[in-house]
Amino acid sequence: MKLRLYLFFSFTLVLLSWPLSLFAQPTTYVISGRVTDAGTGEGIPFASIAVKGQTVGTTSDAAGRYSLQIRQLSDSLLVLSLGYTTRSYPLASLPRQTIDAQLKPTATSLQEVRVYAKGGDPAYRVIRETIRRRDQYDPSRLSAYQYDSYTKIEGYINNFAEKRKKNRRPGPIGRLLGKLPAIIDENGKPAVPVFISETFSNFYARSKPDKAKERVLKSHVTGVGVSDGGLIAQLTGASFQQYNFYRNALNILQKDIPSPIGSQWETVYTFHLKDTVSLGNAICYEIEFSPKRATDLAFVGTVWIDTLQMALAQVDARVDKRANINFVDELHIEQEWDKTASGIRFPTQTQVTIDTDEPAPRAPGALIRFFATARNIIENDPKDVGFYDPSIELADDFRTADAGFWKSVRPDSLSPSEWQAMRVVDSVRNVPFIKVAGEIIKLGVLGYKPINQLNIDLGPILYSYAYNTVEGNRFRIGGRTNTGFSRKWLLDGYVAYGTRDQAFKYSAGVEYVLNRKPWTVIGVRRTYDLERIGVSADNIGNNSLFAAYSRFGTIRRPYFQEDNLAYFRRELGRGFTQTIALRNRTFEPLFPFAFQPQTRDLDQEVRTTYRTTELSSETRFAPDEVMLQNDNVRVSAGATRKPIYTLRYTLGLRDVLGSDFTYHRVAVTMKHSFRVGVLGRTFYSLGAGIIPSTVPYPLLYTPLGNESFFYVGNAYNLMNYFEFVCDRWATVQFEHNFAGLLFNRIPLLRRLKWRELVTAKVLAGSVSASNLAMIPGTDAQGNPVEGFSSLTRTPYVEVGYGIDNIFKVLRVDAIHRLTYRDNVSRTGIPVTPFSIKLSGWLAF
């Protein structure tokens, strides 16, 4: 009976619906599907889809998908794309139908015929008008905007299963990778996933003043050699996935690539108006562009410009291996700009693919994909300026998110290959060989070896051993605590021992995080170690490699120093950091040294040691700098557009904690870099200072020399250690890298990807008569006392020229010393008027 009732009602519904279907014709027809490469199965982005005999059409998205609505049906659908043969597909009389098009790459190249109106290709008129209106449509010109951001990054090892010549099997690395869990990529070849991340955040930006902030709400990171930590979560968020083609250049992989709608559009690119197509609800010009010189660092691709707004609607841009970018076979950016509530366009979807160049023939390669979306865009609702500090902020529970959350925030469901990759990457990272390789990668990058059971990191490994004339064999072991120990307390230190001087050296420090927003810390440190005048940690700065090297070889003018430091550091606002410190230290020389106080209220006897107590203030302003939080340590991601200023003032406090002197020291520095169009990028730093007091010469300014065989960026590379001393000084350091501008035009050198550069460094300074008079001829025992050299009215000048990117890592600098070429150095080391120095720079 139930079956009969079911059949009855079903038959009745069919009879009732059948007549209605005969008379109710649809008002619109929907055609959708995907356009793919017939050979590889990979989606073809921005292919043109049109109905035969009509003017309506659309283009495919970044994955090759499309959807077209029409009111009048035709007999066929035309699908075409540059570099592929055009195909026609029959249309059925259905309200909705799916047509998946497969295009074959064209095998022949037809001679191009262009017919232009007076004034040349009309594409130039369109681009010129687009640039004229870019202030109106550039998102960075809005008073403010914010959106929900989802980013996904995938990393794969590929091209490891290729057979070698004479059908030989892949090499040992290829065979090893072939045994790992893998997926099948779009080309039908195995690829081993080694990194996958997903990040969901809120991104905010405003102008006047320019501010940006990202709140990372959730993040999940899985990969070889990485942990699901805060630093990776910040690096994979929206802050580092900003691609605005309205800017004059896009900074990608440390390269400034001119935008086709930037200020250099007519100098760098040629344009061709290909077609007029429908994108969504807008009619757009489809314009192809390419660099005037194939070897220039520039894009080739297509832009779609809204015909009514003259605003950017889509862009498909590539940089191939002919451009001077290391380790990159191809860089591909696909971006969609959708209309917002106010009517302007905003980049809502961006996909970046980087296919790396194999380091050696038949070696494995790598493929990296970046995918970012912007949703729920809100315009012109600026927050208070203080809201944007810090520029990147992690939610306390950013690591906790279930599968349901990620499903709700993903713009599209993951493809089967992406789901498989997320499952496989955990298996790959747990393979013993890969696990060891990951630990080696972390050790090389961070310099510390984690001991998880004790919640400490051993290192830095770079400082573990040295050999010099004072200590002999120097052995050092150090470490620091991590967040497993405490999120408030950071303890670090080391112990060192020299086999020749048989003396122990040590350092111990404690830092407490008072507040993370704004960043506020307080700390104390005590150190007892061997130092050398002119090559101490104060003037070496953050150059850890040079600091480790300075412990080797002959140590001239060495001294032991007991250093006690207490400091307070606080971030006062975006870019402003204030540090107040109290420092007490001793000077115990191991060389002939003496000074004779020149003030009446001090003992006039010749002395060989002293103690100082200093109260110092450092104000640092870096408005364009992005600071990242790596557990309990802050890391700078650098500044790309605006200078970094630093002002330091030091006050010597006599009779405080046994201090012997009262003195003042003021120093200011500025560092900056900027792009000079197609000529490359310039880096420079300026500095000046004064010590208007009478103190022993170890307390004066000693410019950093360099007696090594390698080039040091912040040093005077043909100046000996402790060659000059100043109490008034001004410095200029300059470097311009042409990024291969000249070598790219020489056929024999083009393939080498060498990059030419020039450098110049100038130091002007002097020493007051009172500071010169502090040096006696002999010490209290009658032994001769070593003095120092000072500059005259002639500044110290060295200039150089060099080649960067030799074998992608090596740099060679030829340096000429132009002044003080016959200087008699107090150190006894002869002056070198010319030298060739090497250095290693791993850069793109």
TrEMBL record:
List UniProt keywords, sorted A-Z.
Signal
Positions in coiled-coil regions: none
Gene3D superfamilies on file: Carboxypeptidase-like, regulatory domain
Q: Which Pfam families match?
A: CarbopepD_reg_2, DUF5686
Q: Where is the signal peptide?
A: 1-24
Q: Which domain of life is it from?
A: Bacteria
InterPro entries from the xrefs?
CarboxyPept-like_regulatory, DUF5686
Name of the protein in question: Carboxypeptidase-like regulatory domain-containing protein
User: Organism, per UniProt?
Assistant: Spirosoma utsteinense
